[in-house]
Design a protein that fits this description.
The protein is built from 13 helices and eight strands. It is α/β, with parallel strands linked by helices. An eight-stranded mixed β-sheet has the order 3-2-1-4-5-6-7-8, with helices on both faces.
């Protein structure tokens, strides 16, 4: 059984709804959404009330927002649906223990986070986004996805089986490390998007037509990513910090402070991190000291 009807619920529902597993029901407070999601997933029924459910499902998947996980688990437990069953949520930052409440005593708890962006998923009520909805609901986007899993050993075994059924790769993480794990994912995905948005804005400030800015940056980013995949981050590093070009970095900071103080601060923070990689590559100490002093101002 799946609780939730959002993009993650539909994606994991379709991906997991294959032998030896079968999705018995989709639960949502909105009856129409429950029915639509059940049809997309291939579940037997879509319902809006716990009283409509027959407690037959051995595994209950909570595909709800992080803030709703504890309350949802409590309601399931109060309805008698938790004891003896596997409860799994999909939060990246929360451990399985987020579902541990008096009402869920006797349930086997786990978390499994699909390390995949769902940015193309539609917003509620969005009529123009049906194509992305179909793509994510198909579950095809989860093939090859890494799933970070932790929790009760028996529940972890169930989560690993589900991940493999979806064509994914299960990976164990320590329960207490979930926030650090998720922060790494946020930095690699969300913060990368924010960084690219700032780079596009700076190109616009330099007089580049915004329609071309992202297209101009794309080959640069793709080339760096391809090299990093082959050789790792340290070997892929290029640019003025890696070369120890203090004068160029100084000119960048002067220019950025004139047009965008926040961009200058971001440049400095990322420059310090870049300098760490440059030192691993053997950047001479005098250049490193000069750059550190410049970037720390």
């Amino acid at each position: 059984m799946i609780v939730g009807t959002g993009p993650v619920a539909r994606a994991v529902g379709r991906a997991f709804n294959r032998p030896p597993f079968r999705c018995a029901a989709v639960l949502s407070r909105d009856p129409a959404r429950a029915r639509r999601a059940a049809k997309e997933i291939g579940a037997r029924i879509g319902v809006a009330s716990l009283t409509e459910l027959q407690p037959r499902a051995g595994t209950i998947l909570l595909a709800v927002p992080d803030d709703a996980i504890a309350a949802t688990a409590r309601r399931l437990g109060a309805a008698g649906l938790a004891r003896g069953r596997v409860l799994i949520h999909f939060s990246g930052a929360l451990a399985a223990s987020a579902m541990a409440r008096p009402e869920t005593r006797g349930a086997l708890l786990a978390s499994m986070h699909p390390l995949r962006s769902f940015a193309g998923a539609p917003k509620r009520g969005g009529g123009a986004a049906r194509a992305p909805a179909a793509r994510f609901a198909s579950g095809a986007a989860l093939r090859g996805t890494f799933f970070a899993i932790e929790g009760h050993p028996q529940a972890v075994r169930r989560a690993r089986s589900l991940a493999r059924a979806a064509g994914g790769v299960p990976v164990r993480v320590a329960p207490g490390a979930k926030p650090v794990y998720h922060a790494a994912a946020v930095m690699a995905c969300n913060y990368f998007v924010a960084l690219m948005a700032r780079a596009v804005a700076l190109l616009a400030a330099a007089g580049v037509d915004e329609r071309h800015a992202l297209r101009m940056l794309t080959p640069l980013v793709e080339g760096a990513w391809a090299t990093m995949k082959r050789r790792g981050p340290t070997a892929a590093l290029t640019g003025p910090v890696a070369r120890g070009d203090v004068g160029t970095v100084a000119s960048h900071l002067i220019a950025l402070r004139a047009v965008d103080h926040q961009a200058a601060d971001l440049y400095r923070a990322l420059g310090v991190e870049t300098l760490r990689l440059a030192l691993r590559r053997g950047l001479p100490r005098p250049a490193a000291l000069a750059l550190r002093k410049l970037l720390s101002r």
